[in-house]
Amino acid sequence: MTVPVEIRDAGLRFGERTLWSGLDLDVAPGEFLAVLGPNGSGKTSLLRVLLGLQELSSGTVRLAGGAPGVANSRVGYIPQQRAMDEGLTMRGTDLVGFGLDGHRWGTGLRGLARRRKRVAEAVAWVGAESYAGAPVGRLSGGEQQRLRVAQALVGEPEVLLCDEPLLSLDPAHQRAVSELIDARRREAGTAVLFVTHEINPILSYVDRVLYLVNGQFRIGTPDEVMSSETLSQLYDSRVEVINVGGQIHVAGAQSALCEDEPHHIGETV
Ligand SMILES: Nc1ncnc2c1ncn2[C@@H]1O[C@H](COP(=O)(O)OP(=O)(O)OP(=O)(O)O)[C@@H](O)[C@H]1O
């Protein structure tokens, strides 16, 4: 069995600062891995390494299709939801089509038809048929984000990298987008790495958590990692984790880091 993501003794440093080191992690086909941690802990940098946009300081990463990077392996990427310029006239189907690398589809009319069919399937898969023909600038944030999911999945990736894809979506759209990602990994065995500040909207899908803090990390099931004991060790300060009605609330983590931004304590979805 091919392991979609294999990370060995990986470290990333910027100047004097070590974001993480000694990271060993295999992500299995169909596994849903949440990557958590406070601002600046190196979550996005990990995705950038896997996308081939950032070199490691030490160690190796290997993706199912070969070396890291979108161009030479089957990797899909869903960025944070950001409102697109209202004047953007590109249609939703064009946006989704950017997720296909040109040469796999051949040239000429037959290639074009195959490409169009694949885009239509991806659009249907995220339920965006009714608005995929419209200029993306006129769509709602939730609609735009569904199209970004289709764009990430249209190439049938073995690995799906998500960088806070639920940010600034309302709870209904958060649920819709999370369900789509969960369905895909179940149906197609896509390995998911999902960077987030807020685990609750995806808690029921998460198999394992990678939690990064201040150069340290823990990997394990949500129960193992999201505990008062583990997070207190990681933050080197008293952190309380309370599980209420299936939602996890973390108290004390931000004060441990003297940060302004609260983490994890969010709305109930
Ligand atoms: N190319 C770079 N050169 C120097 N420092 C960098 C570079 N890229 C990232 N950093 C620094 O590394 C740290 C981690 O950044 P990263 O974006 O990975 O954090 P994050 O955990 O995703 O944070 P957030 O939750 O705020 O998005 C930050 O302090 C950032 O300024």
From TrEMBL:
Pfam families: ABC_tran. The keyword Nucleotide-binding applies. Residues 5-239 form the ABC transporter domain. The keyword Membrane does not apply. GO terms for molecular function: ATP binding; ATP hydrolysis activity. PROSITE patterns: ABC_TRANSPORTER_1, ABC_TRANSPORTER_2. It comes from the Bacteria. Keywords: ATP-binding, Nucleotide-binding, Transport. InterPro entries: AAA+_ATPase (IPR003593), ABC_transporter-like_ATP-bd (IPR003439), ABC_transporter-like_CS (IPR017871), Metal_Ion_Import_ABC (IPR050153), P-loop_NTPase (IPR027417). Belongs to the ABC transporter superfamily. This is Metal ABC transporter ATP-binding protein. It comes from Amycolatopsis suaedae.
